[in-house]
Amino acid sequence: MKVTEVVNETFTGYRVVGYDGKNYFSLYSQEPLNLTVGQDSTDDNGFYLATTEEFATDYYTGLTDHDDALLKYQYNINDVIKGNPNGSAGEIIVSSAKLLEINTIN
Question: Residue 93 above 60 pLDDT?
């Protein structure tokens, strides 16, 4: 019998969203987001996360007329659909990630 090793390595990813002082919203669709720290976010089609805080803030802040918020997520390597968490591309696509923090950027 062959034993398969289970990989349970976790990584941190980042996402920038808009914040109007009351609601968080997607930068592209402008739809409100229901965000709760500690809650898992899932999407069968996947969602993008930046692999570093610097990449997220350099490329995705200032895209709305409102403030921005930086979301910090933790995800498992098994949830990566596309990309390399250790690679230089700056972004990955994951099917699921746990929201760890929400920090407003002015």
Answer: yes
Phi, psi of 55 (to 5 degrees): -60, -45
Whether residue 26 contacts residue 33, with contact meaning beta carbons closer than 8 Å, is answered with: yes
Q: Is the separation of the CB atoms in 37 and 100 below 8 Å?
A: yes
How many Å apart are CA 32 and CA 34, to the nearest integer? 7
Q: Which residues of 9-44 are buried (b: 16+ CB within 10 A; e: fewer)?
A: eebbbbbbbbbeeeebbeeeeeeebeeeeeeebeee
How much is the pTM?
Answer: 0.88
Note whether 15 and 63 are within 8 A (CB): no
Distances (CA, A) of 36 to 21, 32, 82, 97: 16, 13, 25, 12
